[in-house]
Each structure stands twice: as structure tokens, then as C-alpha cells.
Design brief:
The complex is a heterodimer.
Chain A (H helix, E strand, L loop, with lengths): L1 E9 L4 H14 L3 E8 L7 E9 L13 E6 L2 H6 L4 E10 L6 H4 L8 H11 L2 E5 L1 H7 L6 H12 L5 H11 L5 H12 L4
Parallel strand pairs in A: 1-4, 4-5, 5-6
Antiparallel strand pairs in A: 1-3, 2-3
Helix pairs in contact in A: 1-7, 5-6, 6-7, 6-8, 7-8
Chain B lengths: L2 E6 H11 L4 E4 L6 H7 L6 E4 L3 H13 L4 E6 H6 L1 H10 L6 E5 L13 H8 L4 E2 L4 H18 L3 E3 L3 H4 L1 E7 L15 H4 L5 E2 L5 E2 H21 L5 E3 L5 E6 L1 H10 L8 E4 L1 E2 L3 H7 L5 E5 L5 H13 L4 E3 L13 H11 L30 H15 L2 E3 L25 H10 L6 E6 H17 L5 E6 L28 H8 L2 E5 L4 H13 L4 E6 L3 H6 L22 H4 L6 E4 L4 E4 L9 H5 L7
Parallel strand pairs in B: 2-3, 2-4, 4-5, 5-7, 6-7, 12-13, 12-15, 15-16, 17-18, 18-19, 19-21, 20-21
Antiparallel strand pairs in B: 1-8, 6-14, 9-10, 11-13, 22-23
The chains are: A alpha/beta, B alpha/beta.
């Protein structure tokens, strides 16, 4: 088997944490894992993308090639679009319904596409997937920074590859002590987002 | 059983060095190499530090090596450029205990001011050996061997990982760390370690630099022999008369590309410099054509062409000198394109990925929401506009002030170049006030030299020092102004006002969250003759928040829509990501999800529309 995953978002959304949980999950299943992350030079506000390559055979490149991802996790609308072409059109996506405008959008020098335009483009591309209100739920639960664990919960429900208890344990194990309880709750609530 | 962990390439390199018994590690932060230094921390008996620049780090490590202790200077390519002067001496003297230079390259300039290939500098120019890893696992094996070989050959060895090795993650085996390392000891050897134009009677009066050059040249056959037998070069058999050569990450991309090709072409994997000449000659027997994949310059390509010329081999050699793109990172698509062009008989099945029918806005970098730089940059923007000033920028978080919307700094080159460049602008007679913006880490790196020069030559330049007390851009590494070492020991932070006093430079310390105070200080500096220093002093907001400290009292900021006339000053002269304009309504709004309540925008708005 092989599963190639791409997670794209904006700095500060907890992209790397999510990628570590998924990688460790695969590693615990005795699968081969390689990954890479691209972070801009700025600490916050820049685009961040993680690649995770999981296989029971040998893997060479730490990056997912065009059209090869089985799963694309978008933590923000246009950041998911930016990496859409890495996704196999028959693959799956999980998108957080969150728009973070760019500096040029703020200046009205560039246009952020409408939700309709975005969803139409995704549909035309072909993948199955879910758009979930992860950031809104995280904010309701007390901290928007829990977006990543909410999404991991939803992912666990959406893909049978992931085991609920094991993923929950990894979320807890990777969280700093003071966030453990909240992150586990975020994961559980995220799991309920998908029917 | 050996422990296995899923870690970054940089962690693998650090672990390899520790397993090899490294005792002194020094570097200057720079993506993609930064984490190598951080990850060496915490082993008893191993000194790990952030030096104020790469040259200091390299020289310090050489001192340790001469005392028979293994050492590792860590830097990105720009740092290697900066250490060139020292490199061109230590290559002649050689070293004692293993000394491995980490020179990380960033093909594509993903997190850099430029793109370059330090293999040329280290191998072609300094004649030193290099390992070019294809993965985190190989990088770890290579660094361990590099320490041994460095000692055996008495030469500095270099590991040249690229971003996709440094920032890749993989499952790495952790071996035990060595115990009971031999103590340091020093014996002088002035024939080797004094580089000076001394006449040497035993060499017929020739001068020492020539004799040391000869010594280095005479090491080359030994290096050749070592690389000929190296486990990092190998041949993979295939069909046909077109051979592929993958150097470092070039090999990795090629192996990935093989998945999409119906024919397995012969493949030579290379990971060392000097090249394994015999292995190359073996590989090319019966081939018509070679395609060489390397990051980034046609370096191995040219070396192979040279070997072919000497051996009178007529095989066509294709690579980065025109056949492949001559700039940027390799990837699977580039390799498949090249194979398709050079070997049309190979069938390539590319995965489907239709283009998207939607506009995707680009996301440029900016300062963090709440960053104090936004206050001083706004004050500078106003001052520059009023006086038709010019701003020379430097490396650091403030560099985003040169992009839209602010478009403030008009030059950015390399570490510390801002003050000398600004000085030259003043001396040109351009007759406009000239400012420089430099962060404190860059100032201690070598920017301070420009200020000393400006002071000594009475150059009328206005220097703004962004003193956020940490190297913020690369992830909060301490520097000489922080007051704490990497290992957490308290030290004496440099006192900038006293420094300025000693140079006779007038200085003003301002709070960047007080735009009015910043403007007044800038105004006074413009009116003053001679060099002026404005110390914009406030700890980094992001780091302070993580440490649970407050650099401002967060407040709720609201827009009074009746007063807002859509003038966009708060956007164009300030550029906080939380503020946006509705063009149709001619009103701004502040996104409460993004705003952290620094309140700077309240002072930016001239109409009192933000409160």
C-alpha cells in the first residue's frame, strides 16, 4: 500500500503538529514514512505545506509528486487550491472552511476567490471530500489554535486507515501538558463533524 | 535494539555528529541549517553555541580541532561565502581532530536571499572534499565517516546538504553516544599553523604559502582513492545506451521519476567530491549519452566532461549547462521532461493533474500581527515620504517592509551590507537623507563594522537598529544582545548606547509601539550632521507571548465606520494583516480573529476612525 498526504495552510495553524501525528501513526503501524515541510522565512502568516509519504515499500522522494497525493488536507481555502494539483483527481480532500486574506487582498489589489468559485474548481478537478467548519468549532471550544486537532478528529472519521483510539492517544502524547485535555476534546468534537 | 525515531534531516546530521564524538559545535542561524546546532544541545561534555557570525564559528571550531577535539561549524551557503577567507588558509594548514563544515545549500532560494552551489567554492576553489547526501539517512552516515576521514587526511571535510535533505523527515536509527573521549591537548607546529610568507631553506628558499599549497595538492590522490572506494557512489544496472547520473538529491528525484518510466535506464549515484573516476569510466562503457542531475550548477557535469576529455571519450554529456534548467530546484517533472527529450523510446506515464480554473492569490511574507517592527516602519515610512529619504535594508524580519504595501527599503543584499551601502549613497552626493534598517542579530554579525566605519569617517547616515533582542526570523536563537546563551546561561548583553557613545555616534532609544516618539527621533536624526543611531528597542512579540510575557497591554480595537473615509493609510503605510478595505463601501474593517490588540493602528489613523 501507499498513502501520500499533503497538508497546506498558513503559519500558526498547527500544520506541523498534524503532520507529526499522521507520520507517527504510520510509523507505529510499521510502515515506511518520509516527509518534508516547506515553511517561509517568517514565523507567522506565510504559507506552510507538509508532505507525508507512507508506504509498505521503499520511498525515495520526501515530496509528493504532481497528481500523486491520496489525501489533501487544506487548513485554508486558497492554500488548499495552491497545492490542489498534487492531489490525485480520484483522491480525497479535507478542507477547513477558513479564509485568510493575503496582504494584497487586504489592499484590494488582488481578489480572493469566492467560496462558490473555489468549490466549483474543486468539483471540476474531481476529488471526493469534505468541507468542515474546523476553525469555527475550535474557536467555539475556546481556542482557534485547536483547528489542527479538530481536523485530525474529522480525518480519523473520514478515513478508515486511521484508528480512533490510536490517533487520540497520539494527539494527547504530542500535546504540551497544559493543552492535553483541550486538544483531546478538540479531537473528539472534530470526529463528530463527519457523519 | 537501536532506537528508531521519525526526525528531520537536520536532527539526523546532529545525531551523527554526536555519535562521531563531536565536542565543539558552533554556527550562525540560517535556513535550512539552523536546527543542526539546536539539536546538538544537551549532551554533557559537548559545547554548543551560536556564534555572532559564521567566520567566528569556523575559526573557533578550528581552534578546537588543533587541540585534538572534534568540531563542527554549521552554516548555510551565505555563511560559507563569509568564511571564504579563513577557508583559503585552513585548507593549506589542515587540521588535527576531525573538522566537518556543514554548508547547507538552498536550491530555488526557498528561504534565502540568493541561490548558489557551495560545492564549487569548497571543492573547486579550496580543493576540499565534500559529501553530498541524498537523504537524511545517508547524511547521518556521511557525517560520521567525514569525521574519521577528516582526521585521517588532516583535511577539513564538508557535508553539503540541500534544503530537501535538511528539512526532510525520515525514520532514523539512533546509535549510542561515545563514552570517555580523549582529553584535549595542544602541541605547537609552527611549520603548519603559521600561515605567513616565510622563506623555507629546506625547500630552496620557497615561501611557505607555496609549500602549503603543494601539500594540499599532494593530498588529492589520497582523496581520489578514498572516494573510489566510498559506499556513497554506486552503479545501478539498466537497459539502453543512455545513462543517468544522480548527484545527492538529484539521485533521489531520479529514483522517484523511475516509477513513471517503463524502462529502467542505467543509473550512477554520486555522493562525493572528488569524483570516483574509475567508477565513472566503468559506468559509461557502452553508453552514448549521459544526463546529469545535480543541485544546482553544472559542476559534476563539467568535471565529468574534463575526465572524458582526458580519456578521449566521445560520449555526449547533458545537464545543467543548457539541457536542463540552469537555475532552481530539480523535481520529478524536470527529470521526466529530460528523459522524454533525450530518450524518446522510454514511455512515460505521468499522473493526471488537470489545471485549476480559479485565480489563486499569492501570499507574500509580512511581519507577524502584533510585531513591534510595524510601529517603527510606519514612522520611517512617514519620515521618508516627508524628506524624500532612501532606505537601505538588511537581512531580517523587517525585510518584509520592502514588499507591498510599504515598499520602504530600496536595497537588500547580504548580512550587514546596509550601513556601508547607505554610507556610499550619502557619499555619492545624492543629497537626500539616507536611512538603514538593520536587526540586532545582523548588527552583531558584522553590521557593527559598517557603523564603526561611518563613525570614523563622519558619514551622515541614519541607522535604525531593530533591537528585538533575539534572532527572530530563524526561530529565536539568542545573540550577543540577548543576555543568555544557547545553553541557557546568563551573560552580559551588549549595551548599545555605551557602544554608540564610545564611537561618538549620537543615539536615541525609542519604543516602537510609540509611533510619535519614533517619528520625533527620526526627525531629529535627519536634522543632525554625522551618523545617528536610533535604537528601536522592544523584545520580539511572538517570542514574548510564548514566554508568557507582555510587550503591550492587549486592547479591543474597533473601527468607527462614520469616521473612516477609506483613505487606506492604515493599509498602505502600515500593512497589518488584520485590516482590510471594502473598496465599494470605502470602509476598512478589522478581523477580530486575526487582531491581537497591539493598538498601533489607532495611532496610524489620522482621522480617529480606529479606537
Amino acid at each position: 500500500m501507499k498513502m501520500d498526504v499533503v497538508i497546506s495552510g498558513v503559519g500558526g495553524q498547527g500544520n506541523i503538529f498534524a503532520s507529526l501525528v499522521i507520520s507517527q501513526y504510520a510509523m507505529n503501524k510499521k510502515l515506511n514514512v518520509l516527509g518534508a515541510e516547506t515553511i517561509g522565512a517568517a514565523q507567522r502568516g506565510g504559507a506552510v505545506v507538509s508532505h507525508i509519504r507512507i508506504s509498505d515499500g521503499e520511498i525515495y522522494s520526501p515530496l509528493v509528486s504532481r497528481g500523486q497525493a491520496d489525501l489533501l488536507i487544506g487548513m485554508e481555502y486558497v492554500e488548499m487550491l495552491r497545492h490542489m494539483r498534487l492531489l490525485n483527481p480520484k483522491g480525497m480532500y479535507l478542507l477547513n472552511a477558513m479564509k485568510i486574506p493575503t496582504v494584497l487582498n487586504n489592499m484590494a489589489l488582488d481578489e480572493y476567490p469566492s467560496t462558490e468559485e473555489i468549490l466549483r474548481a474543486i468539483k471540476k478537478y474531481g476529488p471526493k471530500g469534505y468541507v468542515i467548519e474546523a476553525s469555527a468549532l475550535a474557536k467555539k471550544l475556546g481556542n482557534i489554535q485547536m483547528t489542527n486537532v479538530v481536523m485530525l478528529g474529522a480525518l480519523t472519521k473520514a478515513m478508515s486507515f486511521f484508528d480512533y483510539n490510536e490517533m487520540k492517544w497520539l494527539v494527547s502524547a504530542n500535546s504540551p501538558t497544559r493543552f492535553k485535555e483541550a486538544n483531546v476534546m478538540g479531537f473528539e468534537e472534530g470526529y463528530k463533524l463527519i457523519n | 535494539m537501536k532506537e528508531k525515531r521519525y526526525v528531520m534531516g537536520n536532527t539526523a546530521i546532529a545525531r551523527g555528529a554526536l555519535e562521531a564524538g563531536v565536542r565543539v559545535v558552533a554556527g550562525y542561524p540560517g535556513t535550512p541549517a539552523t536546527e543542526i546546532v539546536d539539536e546538538c544541545l544537551g549532551v554533557p561534555g559537548v559545547h554548543v553555541e551560536w556564534a555572532n557570525n559564521e567566520k567566528v564559528a569556523f575559526e573557533l571550531c578550528t581552534g578546537a580541532s588543533l587541540c585534538n577535539v572534534r568540531a563542527m561549524p554549521v552554516m548555510k551557503h551565505n555563511g560559507t561565502n563569509y568564511v571564504t577567507d579563513f577557508l583559503m588558509h585552513v585548507n593549506f594548514t589542515g587540521i588535527r581532530a576531525g573538522l566537518v563544515l556543514i554548508s547547507a545549500d538552498d536550491p530555488g532560494g526557498l528561504s534565502s536571499q540568493n541561490e548558489e552551489d557551495t560545492r564549487i567554492l569548497v571543492h573547486q576553489y579550496a580543493h576540499l572534499p565534500i559529501f553530498d547526501p541524498c537523504s537524511p539517512t545517508e547524511a547521518k552516515a556521511m557525517i560520521k565517516e567525514a569525521f574519521d576521514l577528516s582526521e585521517k587526511t588532516e583535511l577539513v571535510f564538508c557535508l553539503r546538504p540541500v534544503t530537501r535533505v535538511c528539512h526532510a523527515r525520515g525514520i532514523i536509527e539512533f546509535d549510542d553516544l561515545p563514552k570517555d573521549l580523549p582529553p584535549a591537548h595542544y602541541e605547537p607546529d609552527r611549520d603548519r599553523f603559521i600561515m605567513s610568507a616565510v622563506e623555507l631553506p629546506q625547500f630552496g628558499g620557497l615561501k611557505r604559502p607555496q609549500i602549503r599549497h603543494r601539500w594540499l595538492n599532494e593530498k588529492q590522490p589520497l582523496l581520489q582513492k578514498i572516494m573510489e572506494e566510498s559506499p556513497y557512489n554506486w552503479i545501478e544496472k539498466g537497459e539502453g545506451k543512455i545513462g543517468l547520473v544522480g548527484c545527492g538529491m538529484g539521485y533521489t528525484w531520479t529514483k522517484e521519476a523511475e516509477h513513471f518510466m517503463d524502462t529502467r535506464l542505467p543509473l550512477l549515484k554520486l555522493g562525493t567530491l572528488p569524483l570516483p573516476r574509475k567508477k565513472i569510466l566503468d559506468f559509461v562503457k557502452g553508453l552514448d549519452k549521459l544526463i546529469i542531475f545535480e543541485e544546482t550548477e553544472p559542476f559534476v557535469e563539467n568535471l565529468i566532461k574534463m575526465i572524458f576529455q582526458e580519456e578521449k571519450i566521445g560520449i555526449e554529456v547533458l545537464g545543467r549547462s543548457g539541457f536542463l534548467p540552469s537555475d532552481g530546484e530539480l523535481n520529478v517533472q524536470v527529470i521526466l521532461d529530460a528523459v522524454q527529450k533525450a530518450a524518446p523510446s522510454v514511455n512515460i506515464s505521468r499522473p493526471e493533474a488537470p489545471s485549476l480554473d480559479v485565480h489563486i492569490p499569492i501570499r507574500t511574507r509580512t511581519q507577524c500581527v502584533g510585531c513591534n517592527y510595524r510601529g517603527i516602519l510606519n514612522a520611517l515610512k512617514q519620515t521618508v515620504r516627508k524628506h524624500k529619504g532612501i532606505v537601505a535594508g538588511d537581512i531580517g524580519c523587517h525585510d518584509a517592509g520592502s514588499f507591498r504595501p510599504l515598499e520602504l527599503q530600496s536595497t537588500i543584499y547580504c548580512m550587514g551590507s546596509s550601513i556601508p551601502m547607505a554610507s556610499g549613497m550619502v557619499l555619492s552626493g545624492v543629497n537626500r537623507p539616507v536611512f538603514t534598517f538593520i536587526g540586532d542579530s545582523t548588527f552583531y554579525h558584522n553590521g557593527i563594522l559598517g557603523l564603526i566605519n561611518a563613525a570614523n569617517n563622519k558619514i551622515n547616515v541614519n541607522v535604525i537598529l531593530g533591537e528585538n533582542t533575539v534572532t527572530a526570523m530563524t526561530g529565536f536563537q539568542p545573540h550577543p544582545g540577548t543576555g543568555v546563551t544557547l545553553a541557557g546561561e546568563k551573560t552580559n548583553p551588549v549595551n548599545v548606547p555605551k557602544l554608540a557613545e564610545s564611537m561618538g555616534v549620537s543615539y536615541r532609544v525609542v519604543n516602537p509601539y510609540d509611533i510619535k516618539q519614533c517619528r520625533e527621533a527620526l526627525e531629529a536624526a535627519v536634522k543632525e550632521e554625522g551618523p545617528s543611531l536610533i535604537v528601536s528597542s522592544m523584545p520580539c512579540y511572538l517570542l514574548s507571548t510564548r514566554q508568557g510575557k507582555k510587550v503591550f497591554e492587549p486592547r479591543e480595537v474597533k473601527v468607527n465606520a462614520d469616521r473612516c473615509n477609506g483613505c487606506m493609510i492604515c493599509i498602505n503605510d502600515f500593512g497589518c494583516p488584520a485590516i482590510s478595505i471594502d473598496k465599494a463601501a470605502k470602509k476598512i474593517s478589522i478581523d477580530p480573529m486575526i487582531c491581537v490588540g497591539c493598538g498601533l493602528c489607532v495611532d496610524v489613523c489620522q482621522r480617529g476612525a480606529i479606537a
